[in-house]
Structures are given as structure tokens and as C-alpha cells.
Automatic annotation (TrEMBL):
InterPro entries: NUDIX_hydrolase-like_dom_sf, NUDIX_hydrolase_dom. GO terms for molecular function: hydrolase activity. The keyword Oxidoreductase does not apply. It holds the Pfam family NUDIX. It comes from the Bacteria. Its cofactor is Mg(2+). Residues 5-135, 155-293 form the Nudix hydrolase domain. Keywords: Hydrolase. The lineage of its organism: Bacteria, Bacillati, Actinomycetota, Actinomycetes, Glycomycetales. This is ADP-ribose pyrophosphatase YjhB (NUDIX family). It comes from Stackebrandtia albiflava.
């Protein structure tokens, strides 16, 4: 069974009447009359926010600005009998910044729709989840085959991380050990999202493995990305690495003794810090992003 990962970024754009902009597939597609949010796949080394601006311009003719990060969700999609793909979808709220809406582009019609009218309409599991509607379903797959790996590993990895505080206001950070991309730097607790795993569930798992703490997530904070075209994997392979970091706010309501449960993994030390001490630390882009509320 082939298993692949895909990251997409999508936008919710509303008009003054409360309608949202949707795309309805034409007969030229494999799923005519199905409904989709505008947006698309995050290209290698592309920030998800840039993906939304690029795809909205191509698909709708509109220039947009992001007003908020709305949600992140994941689902495993059956592409063929022998292929499953894990989709991670990042959804932003948008506003129009220019351009003119095209009636039809990229094999879909662009329509303003009252969300309540979409109940029961054909759409993918992911689209219905993003809109908060009950799943209506589409036939599996999109007819494309998994791409063979290149000579140099093109690695696009989704990680879930948390800016965790305790009742005293301290922040929990982890140290990256030798052999990893940011050895010697302090990082946010968290890690890669496994195949078939929701980001929040993966984050809570990673927090416990790295720190032994039981955390409560309180909301999405930021999405940031990092591109390292000359990275080396822990097993020594050259990698063109694109990391997409989903950052949540969270609390540890009842701190316990800090212990690394997953000994020998990507964490060598874990420690509570006063917020004022963090700017002077050697730190990753995820911690930098966490400093910016």
C-alpha cells in the first residue's frame, strides 16, 4: 500500500451578505458539480500563506489578504485501491484586496453561496469538514499516481508544536540534540504529524514523549515554514527540507517532574523558562514565531 502526505492551504472569503466564495467543478473534471473551497496544494518551499494568495489569484482572479488563521485539519483520502494519502489542510479567513472575480477558471465556476445551502451537496470529506457540514462524499481518488522520489530527497514535513505555559507563566522548551538540523537550539515541544493522525492528537502525544507533561491546547497561534535546501537527515541522506510548523497555544495546568520519555529521540533536554529569558537563547524559527503573539 502506497502512503503519501499532502499539504494544502485554502481560504474562506465572505461578502457583505454572509455568502462565501466556492468553486463548483465543471464537466471537464472527474467530479462534476462538486463543491470546493478556493486554494490548493502547498508547493515545495512555499509558505502556506503564499499558497493561498497564489491559488486564489489563479482560480478566481482576486487578490486577497489573510485576516486570520481559522483552522487546521487532516484526513486520510483513498486515492486508489493501493494508495492512501494523508491530507493536512490549513484554512485562512480572507478579505478582498483587488482584482475582479472571474466567473470560471481552472475547470470550475466561482460562485458566492450561502453556506447553509451547501448541506447535502457533493463535496469531499475535507471540504465538508472545513465548512462544518456533514460529510456527503465523493468517489475516491483523483486519477494521479504517486510521484517517484527524486535523487535528492524532497521532504515536505508537517509538524505540530505548542507554546506551553504553566500557572506561573513560565514557558516549556526542548533542546535539539547533535545529529539533528538545529542541534544546540531550543525548540517548542512537538514534532512531526504521523500518517493518519490529527495534528492536535500528534502534538499532545509528542509533548508527553518529550517532556512527560499533560497539556491542554487552547487555540491556534501561528503557521510558519522553513526551507533548508541543503539539509542532512539524521541517517546521513542529503535532503531539500521544507518544514511547515503548526503552532498552538497551550497550558500545563498541573506541572510534574520533567522527564524525557522518548529517550534517544529528537530531544536531549527539557526546561521551563521565564519569558524574559527566551529572546537571548539560541532558538529555532518555531520559538521565534512563538515570541510573536
Amino acid at each position: 500500500m502506497d502512503r503519501t502526505m499532502r499539504v494544502g492551504a485554502y481560504g474562506i472569503l465572505s461578502d457583505d451578505a454572509g455568502r462565501i466564495l466556492m468553486r463548483r467543478a465543471t464537466e471537464a473534471t472527474g467530479s462534476p458539480d462538486s463543491w470546493w473551497l478556493p486554494g490548493g496544494r502547498v508547493k515545495h518551499a512555499e509558505d502556506p500563506a503564499d499558497t493561498v494568495a497564489r491559488t486564489l489569484s489563479v482560480q478566481t482572479g482576486l487578490d486577497v489578504e489573510i485576516t486570520a488563521l481559522r483552522t487546521v485539519t487532516s484526513a486520510v483520502v483513498p486515492m486508489t485501491d493501493q494508495w492512501r494519502e494523508h491530507h493536512t489542510l490549513i484554512v485562512y479567513d480572507l478579505k478582498t484586496a483587488g482584482g475582479e472575480l472571474a466567473p470560471e477558471r481552472e475547470n470550475a465556476r466561482n460562485l458566492w453561496v450561502d453556506p447553509t445551502e451547501l448541506a447535502g451537496q457533493p463535496m469531499s470529506q475535507i471540504t465538508s469538514t472545513m465548512l462544518g457540514l456533514s460529510e456527503t462524499g465523493l468517489p475516491p481518488g483523483h486519477g494521479r499516481a504517486p510521484e517517484p522520489p527524486p535523487g535528492k530527497l524532497l521532504e515536505q514535513r508537517v509538524g505540530a508544536y505548542a507554546w506551553l505555559t504553566d500557572p506561573a507563566g513560565r514557558v516549556l522548551l526542548t533542546m535539539i540534540p547533535e545529529g539533528y538540523w538545529a542541534a544546540g537550539k531550543w525548540h517548542l515541544p512537538g514534532g512531526g504529524v504521523d500518517f493518519g493522525e490529527q495534528p492536535e492528537a500528534g502534538l499532545l502525544r509528542e509533548i508527553h514523549e518529550e517532556t512527560s507533561q499533560r497539556a491542554v491546547l487552547t487555540g491556534l497561534r501561528r503557521v510558519v515554514s522553513r526551507h533548508d535546501p541543503d539539509s542532512i537527515t539524521p541517517d546521513g541522506r542529503p535532503s531539500d527540507f521544507h518544514g511547515i510548523n503548526l503552532i498552538w497555544d497551550g497550558v500545563v495546568p498541573n506541572p510534574s517532574q520533567l522527564t524525557i520519555v522518548d529517550v534517544g529521540g529528537s530531544t536531549s533536554e527539557v526546561r521551563w523558562f521565564e519569558p524574559a529569558d527566551i529572546p537571548g537563547l539560541p532558538k529555532t524559527v518555531a520559538v521565534e514565531a512563538g515570541l510573536d503573539p
